[in-house]
From TrEMBL:
GO terms for molecular function: RNA binding; rRNA (guanine-N2-)-methyltransferase activity; rRNA (guanine-N7-)-methyltransferase activity. SMART domains: THUMP (SM00981). Residues 42-153 form the THUMP domain. This is Putative RNA methylase. SUPFAM superfamilies: S-adenosyl-L-methionine-dependent methyltransferases. Pfam families: RlmL_1st (PF22020), THUMP (PF02926), UPF0020 (PF01170). Keywords: Methyltransferase, RNA-binding, Transferase.
């Protein structure tokens, strides 16, 4: 089968490496996603284990498509009885456009009509549309004169792991946190510390990785569980294998601290939700009081950029303090700071040895690396 993993812009190559490690074939990074091939076992495994993608889509059809008529006819050439019964609900998601199909709501309506008209004609009844929790999500992509039809095997976005009902005011997506950890080159036998941890996403993603815990274990369900060809025995086997492969202890300590007592409470709750509260250490601490807890390690943090937090506070002074703490107290460490504000990052007052462009949502950011001697 041909699959497509959707990922955040800029993380395509990193996600391709992850998919190859999970056993994917013919892996091809594209724009905001990665095409790959594999069997049903791989589809389930990627949904369960991949830390970077949002959704795993399955190709079912592709056809030339200039306008609404072509679209309707092309969708009707698919035998929807293979994917959908009238008692199942459906949602259509549209990306891309061409000269005649340039309004996603109109395009999705055409697709929905083509599907339910076929059901009505063949079976005398039709599926209802359910936008939030449908049984089957149909993904349609229009590009130039072609339409690609895929089914969404994930359901809710995979970045919503399910362990994090509690978040601070500007949370990192779990998938981006996992990507930053990957980009830092952190090895599990190194200490990991986030002195600005908020509700704990970076330390929690690091601990899941270090303990070899599949991020999909916390989800209530995957989209493919509603499909007509769903293999419950296969999924249960993969879930059991994932549980059996977890480690009992961290190879090195993972810490998080933050000045806000409330978000530290949230971080501890989130750690309990993913069963790592006995492994990862969270504490309330002012940045000015932070000292290196070991001789060496990886420090990774996401300070406020003024986009969503602390507009009125003096962030320049805060960044200068961060730079001073790194310089004076973290000799022997490597620090990574994610910044979405160039001026503020200059206030750190340290020379970065590397800058990696990443996006936090739609915001272009840089992950800056500091070797602290």
């Amino acid at each position: 089968m041909n699959y497509f993993a959707t990922v955040a812009r800029g993380l395509e190559t990193l996600a391709a490496q992850e998919l190859e490690q999970l056993g994917a074939h013919s892996v091809e990074p594209g724009f905001c996603g990665v095409a790959f091939e594999g069997d049903r076992t791989l589809l389930y495994r990627v949904n369960l284990w991949a830390r970077l993608p949002f959704r795993i889509l399955v190709d079912i059809h592709e056809f030339p498509c200039l306008d609404a008529k072509d679209l309707y006819r092309g969708i009707q050439t698919i035998d929807w009885q293979n994917y959908l019964t009238p008692d199942m609900t459906l949602a259509v998601n549209v990306t891309g456009k061409n000269a005649h199909l340039n309004h996603s709501h109109f395009t999705s309506l055409q697709v929905k009509n083509a599907i339910v008209d076929q059901q009505q004609e063949k079976l005398g009844e039709r599926s209802n549309v359910e936008l939030h929790e449908p049984d089957v999500r149909v993904n349609v992509h229009i590009e130039r004169d072609f339409c690609t039809v895929k089914l969404d095997s994930s359901g809710n976005s995979l970045h919503r792991r399910g362990y994090r009902p509690a978040v601070g005011s500007a949370p990192l997506k779990e998938s981006l946190a996992a990507a930053l950890i990957q980009l830092s080159g952190w090895k599990q036998d190194q200490m990991f510390y986030d002195p600005l941890c908020g509700s704990g996403t970076l330390p929690l993603e690091a601990s899941l990785k270090a303990l070899n815990i599949a991020p999909g274990l916390f989800r209530e369900s995957f989209g493919f569980e509603n499909w007509l060809d769903f293999d419950l025995v296969l999924l249960e086997k993969l879930l059991q294998e994932a549980k059996d492969s977890q480690l009992d202890t961290l190879p090195a300590p993972i810490w998080g601290s933050d000045h806000d007592e409330n978000v530290i409470e949230q971080a501890i709750n989130n750690a309990q939700n993913c069963g790592v509260d006995n492994h990862v250490w969270f504490s309330q601490m002012e940045l000015a009081d932070v000292v290196a807890p070991a001789d060496s390690g990886i420090l990774l943090c996401n300070p406020p950029y003024g986009e969503r937090l602390g507009r009125d506070s003096d962030l320049g002074a805060f960044y200068k303090l961060l730079g001073d703490v790194l310089k004076q107290r973290f000799k022997g460490w490597t620090a990574f700071v994610l910044s979405g504000n160039k001026e503020l990052s200059q206030s750190i007052g340290l020379k970065s040895s590397k800058r990696i462009a990443v996006y936090n949502g739609a915001l272009p950011c840089q992950l800056m690396k500091y070797e602290l001697y």
